[in-house]
Amino acid sequence: MKHVIIVGAGASGLAAASRLVENGLSATNITILEAQNHIGGRVHTVTNDGNPLEIGAQWVHGQQGNVVFEIAESAHELNTDIQTLESSGFAENVVFGFEDYKLNKEQVQQFMQTVHSLEEISKSELSGWNKSFGEYFEEKFNELIFSKCSHSEFDRSTALAFLDWYHIMENVIDGADNWKETCGSGHLHYKECSGDPLVTWKRGYSTLFKILMKNLSKSHSDQQLPLSDRIFLNKAVTNIDWDSEATSEKKIQVTCEDGSLYPADFVLVTASLGFLKSNMHSLFIPALPTYKKRAIQGLGFGTVDKIFIKFAKPWWTTDWGGISLLRRRSQEADSHWSDHLLGFYTVRLHPNMLIAWITGKAARQVESLPENEILKVCSDLLRKYIGADFPFTEPVGLILSKWFSNPFTVGSYSYRSMESKEMNVWAADLALPVYDSNGFPRLFFAGEATHDCMYSTVHGAVETGWREADRIAKYCIGFHNAKL
């Protein structure tokens, strides 16, 4: 029986492992090496005041055609009420405002209608667009919105402020530092699942892994798959010696930071694209083929962080969903990191918290700052924007995701970059196996960045884990039910 090593115990790695076992491979022939002290990868649920808090993946994006939604719904682990208001800059109970002025509902509605119109128009126009998504959106926004400025309730500066806010929102969605780094035509690669785009879990996103490994109580699931004992934590892989000139009988040697060695017939790499960008030259012996290195280089991978701000008690009203920060454009060349905060929004199940989203260079900068400095800046902003509306009190602490500083993620999720287009490299190139000199596959790749159309999502990651498990199945003896 062939032995499979899976590098990474995130969504794709655990999905692949469970699929291999379901297809007939003994769990004893699977080894899962996880660099961190917990499973989940970029799905990371922690407990705060007795309730789940998502440091990583926040929502199940859509319902129809979403395998994570199907898995979770069948286990009755999803909240059934519509969650589109939670922590969302588009929520109806969220205020849009400057420090000295709040937009009225009619103004916000006008801007939103313009944005939605552009989103619909872009579906037919972006395929022939050779420049960035940002250049497309700015050009079309100017055409649509500024023609209305003379007879509408908002002026040019307000329109520009909303455009800048929407730019940050798109960066949060896509993961790019700047929407001029996002490929316009590549933007169409992404496929949305219809239905509620912001579904939440009852007990946190990490429940997914208990379901995948059949680890829930008998009332929820079938017998537990024997996978827990095959996951080895704190096993950072430093190199994979796959020997391209060897015959298929020679084992691949996987070495960990602690000096431990693991032999395998096949290695499935599920590490983030950010990790591969930082480590591909030292991780693989011999070096990866050129097409694979080009794919790793060309595909985009950015940083999106969350700042959870704690207060002793909520000072806002229960019908207030947060504030999206509008700013008048400055002539200064350099901006402060706080200029890239999307806004402050309420957090489901955490009534004494607000969440602020931040991306790109600003997010990477925040990760290196002391907590008291971040709190002071956020406190000053809140006081300026809404201090006159509520009996504001100072925050008492924060929780900050640090996805770029984490050496095993080096960022948050992937996107289709302008470099992808220029190099003509896409997810399919990253997903291809690497073969030895005899044409026998040795290295396999999974993870959200390898998905053609559901990249940057957990359901995309799960699908790629299943895809590679089925691909590996063709080369493993003893499979009877492989879904090929």
From TrEMBL:
Q: Which Pfam families match?
A: Amino_oxidase (PF01593)
Sorted alphabetically, the Gene Ontology cellular component annotations on this record are: cytoplasm
Transmembrane spans: none
Any GO MF annotation of the entry: polyamine oxidase activity
What's the superkingdom here?
Eukaryota
Stretches assigned to the Amine oxidase domain? 12-472
Q: What is this protein called?
A: Amine oxidase domain-containing protein
Q: Origin organism of this chain?
A: Daphnia pulex
